[in-house]
Amino acid sequence: MTDDPIFNIPNGMPRLAEIMRRLRDPNTGCPWDIEQNFRTIAPYTIEEAYEVADAIDREDWPELEGELGDLLLQVVYHGQMGAEVGHFDVESILRRVSDKMIARHPHVFGNETRDKTAEDQKRDWEASKARERASKGAEGALADVALGLPALMRAVKLQKRAARVGFDWPNAGQVLDKIAEESRELVEARNRADPDQTHEEFGDLLFVMANLARHLGVDPEHALRDANAKFTRRFTQIERELANDGRRPEESNLEEMDALWDAAKAKERGQRP
């Protein structure tokens, strides 16, 4: 094993790219890796990105280092598969993103002034992206918002694009009014026992909630992740309290668990139960 030339390549992108090339070698590679394609690897790419975000949320920096490596491996994986069919390779991926960063930052790599606020730079960035979309023939403000994004994230991106061309409520108050309207329509659909309409109205309500988050400056994905974490903490506390009494949740009832929930909530807030 130690005679393998892979051990003589210095650590860095060339070594990782060679490892992936070897894993995908149709004659001597790993059978699982050889069978993969862009579609089968895409879910792993998404999963690794979420694991990076999770490590950041937990401020687990050693874990983040490992997760970033796993995410980088996904890029190399796609690069190798692209090279095998002649679409692109790792080097062309690196070259393209480097060229893009230089082109989008003329205030750093060109002669444009740096005397701008972060908000000014953000507007310039978006204008640059819009020019790139136009050069690719993308038609319409919503043309290239990725379909594969999580639905909540995609809703916010769609709304931001529409807002740039003036299709937006002026203030959060009007969004709240729309939420009340959509809530009423959802209740009506439920009362009619119409599953298709209930599905549609529920989606409309979620979409408007995402719009409210945008108006309030809240990241809805992050807010929901925090809510999930809070629910997990408090329900786990309920389980602990019941376990101290030798019971499980299914041996309790909603009234008791609600009281334990309120106690866990008060404890988190530093209040007396």
Topology of helices and strands:
Blueprint lengths: L12 H11 L7 H5 L2 H20 L3 H24 L5 H15 L1 H4 L8 H18 L15 H14 L7 H20 L3 H22 L3 H25 L9 H15 L5
Helix pairs in contact: 1-4, 3-4, 8-10, 9-10, 11-12
Strand content range: under 5%
Arithmetic mean of pLDDT: 91
Radius of gyration, whole Å: 25 Å
Number of helices: 12
CATH H level, superfamily name of the domain at 5-104: MazG-like
Total strands: the figure is: 0
Distance between the termini: 62 Å
* CATH fold-level label of the domain at 5-104: Helix Hairpins
Basic shape: extended
List low-confidence stretches: none
SSE sequence, one letter per element: HHHHHHHHHHHH
InterPro entries: MazG-like_dom, NTP-PPase_MazG-like_C, NTP-PPase_MazG-like_N, NTP_PyrPHydrolase_MazG
GO molecular function, one term: ATP diphosphatase activity
Pfam families: MazG
Protein name: Nucleoside triphosphate pyrophosphohydrolase
Could you please describe the fold and organization of this structure?
Residues 36-109, 176-234 form the NTP pyrophosphohydrolase MazG-like domain. Residues 112-133, 242-251, 264-273 have a biased composition (Basic and acidic residues). With 273 residues, the protein is mainly alpha-helical. Among the domains are: 5-104, Helix Hairpins (Orthogonal Bundle), CATH 1.10.287; 222-268, no CATH class. The protein is built from twelve helices and no strands. It has helices at 13-23, 31-35, 38-57, 61-84, 90-104, 106-109, 118-135, 151-164, 172-191, 195-216, 220-244, 254-268. Helix 1 (13-23) crosses helix 4 (61-84), helix 3 packs antiparallel against helix 4 (61-84) and helix 11 (220-244) crosses helix 12. The longest helix is centred in the C-terminal third of the chain and has 25 residues, at 220-244.
